[in-house]
Every structure is written in structure tokens, then in C-alpha cells.
Amino acid sequence: MPPSAVAIVSPYDLSARYARRGETRWKGFLAHVTETCDPHTPSVITDVTTTKAAVHDTKALPGILANLDRRNLLSKEHFVDGGYLSVALKQQVAREHGVGLVGPIRAKSTRQSRKGNVFHRDAFAIDWDAKDVTCPQGKVSRRWTTPPSLAPYVNVGFSPDDCRQCPVKAACTRTDARKVSFLPRELYDIQSESRTEQQTQEWLSRYSLRAAIESTISEFVNGHGMRQCRYRSEQKAHVQHVLTAIAVNLERIGVRLPPTPARQPRNPTALQGFLDWQHIPRPRSWRVATHPAG
Predict the structure, then answer these.
(1) What is the dihedral of CA 198, 201, 204, 206, to 10 degrees?
(2) CA distance linking residue 86 with residue 92, whole number of Å
(3) Is the pLDDT of residue 189 over 80?
(4) The dihedral of CA 215, 218, 223, 229: what is its sign?
């Protein structure tokens, strides 16, 4: 079977794609919604980007920021879900747009970190100038390489002779020699700083602003039937998404508008005043008097 990015899954719409997020599975497209989060003004949706369902969130974020930049709607900070964020993307957005991405950096997923063992990546001391790494037992790495790839990583390897004789080898690696991978220095510093910052209560309180977008997504889905595509093709589905966002904005702004003042009755004309003075009944509309019902 071909991958989801190219597999045709619908005989009615050849551009639809299959995707799965947790327990949710669907065929079609994906809508990325951006809104303001100023507590003193209504939350206004500023951008809706439509992509194929199989497109990863990190691939969609640069286009979203480019759309906002073109309309002069970029803010100093952009709160995103963890699925939109990577260390390299955080650096790229800050360099190109001057925007700080606020979101959780994914935690370590190595076997050592999952088991809570002390010999995870942070237990190794990195000497960037000498290009070597020292393990908790004092052994120095023998190999430092940066292979060409889309994701820049530094690969460090230790000598098998040092690892085989290590008394704590079972708690460190299951191979003949331990290998450690980490980001280049600039990205590594950003990663370490972000992971430390997101553990503080101040950062958690600030990031709680992003929770409002979840209610917006629920409003799209439950209030406007967003999960049912009314048109075929990605371009027409995008029109549906934009029209839905406009409807949501009108509802939100309408709630915050001041109430309409009561209309004052118009002063009667001289003829109307004379008819009332003579107690002569007059119809509410002159059309009724001109064209009486037969």
C-alpha cells in the first residue's frame, strides 16, 4: 500500500487523504485555526489554513505564519500545540519572523528516560570545543560525527573496550558500546532552556491561554459541522473553513457590541394630529387607506 500522503482513499475526491490522530480517523483534509487571545477583546479568528489530512502540523506552521505576516497580523508570541513545535522550527521562526513560539518541547523518549534511569542524555557532559563527551563513569567518547540529514544531530560513540568492562553497563546500554545523539550546540541550548522553562509555574500559567483554541475547535465541530465536508477538493473545502470562521467571528463580535438603543416614535404630522383631535380613526399605513382590501 502507498503511504497516506499519496494514497487515494475516496472515489469521489481524489485529493482527500487518510489520517489518524489518537482515536480519531478520517478521510479528507485538516483545518488549522489561529485566533487572538487578548483577555480584554473578543477572540477573533485571524487565519484558517487547509491542508491534506496527512500533512504534519510542523509542515503547516511556516505557511500559517507566512499568511499572518502578509496581512500584518503576526504577534510577538504564537502559542502552539506540541505537535506544531520542534527546536529547529522554533529557531527558524524567531530568525525569519521575530516571533517566539510558545509550546511544550517533547520530552526525551529514550529507553533510559522512559525507565527513569540516571544514564539518560543529560547525564553525559559535553565538551563542545574539544568535541568529546564524558559518561558518568568518567570515560571519554571516541567518535564525534555530524552526518548530513534533514534533522541536524551530533552522533557520539564510546569505545567498546570501555563499555564492556563498565560495572554499570546493564543500566546504560544493551549493545557493545553506548551511543548518544543530541542537537548541535545552538539548538541544544534552546532545547535545554525550553525544557527547563516549561517546568515553571509562570510558563504554565502563560501557556494556559492556548486552551481557548480547544473550545474554538469544539465550536467548529459541534456547532458548525466542520467534520462534514460539503464540497469536493481541497480548495472548496478551504472556502467552507473560511466561511465557518467568518460566521464564528460575527457571533463573537455581535455578543460584545453595545445594545441597540430603543427607537423613539416619530412625532405625528399636522394632518395626523388633526385627525386625532377630531377623533377620526386613521389607519397605521396610508397604503391601507389608498388601497382598501376588497
Answers:
(1) -110
(2) 10
(3) yes
(4) positive
Three cell numbers written together for 168: 554499570
* pTM score of the predicted model: 0.75
- d(CA 83, CA 69) in angstroms, rounded, equals 22
Consecutive H or E run containing 270: helix 270-277
What is the structure's pLDDT at 115? 61
Cα 26 to Cα 22, 49, 109, 204, 234: the distances in Å are 11, 18, 28, 32, 15
Give yes or no for a contact between 169 and 198, defined as CB atoms under 8 angstroms apart: no
The C-alpha atoms of residue 221 and residue 97 are separated, in whole angstroms, by 31
| 3 state DSSP class of 254 | helix
Collect contacts of 40-44 with beta carbons under 8 A, ≥24 apart.
42/252, 42/253, 42/255, 42/256, 43/212, 43/216, 43/252, 44/249, 44/252, 44/253
Q: What is the pLDDT of residues 160-185, one digit of tens each?
A: 888 888 888 887 888 888 888 888 88
Backbone angles phi and psi of 156, in degrees to 5: -125, 135
Residues sharing a CB contact under 8 Å with residue 178, sequence separation 6 or more, in sequence order = 135, 157, 158, 163, 172
* Spatial CB neighbours of 92, under 8 Å, sequence gap ≥ 6: 62
Task: Work out the average pLDDT over 244-252.
Answer: 92
The bridge status of strand 143-145 relative to strand 154-157 is antiparallel
137 or 266, greater pLDDT: 137
Mean pLDDT score of the chain = 85
- State pLDDT tens for residues 40-57: 888 899 999 999 988 889
Using the 8-state DSSP alphabet, how is residue 136 labeled?
A: T
Burial 270-291 (b: 16+ CB within 10 A, else e): eeeeeeeeeeeeeeeeeeeeee
Tell me phi and psi for residue 63, to 5 degrees.
-65, -35
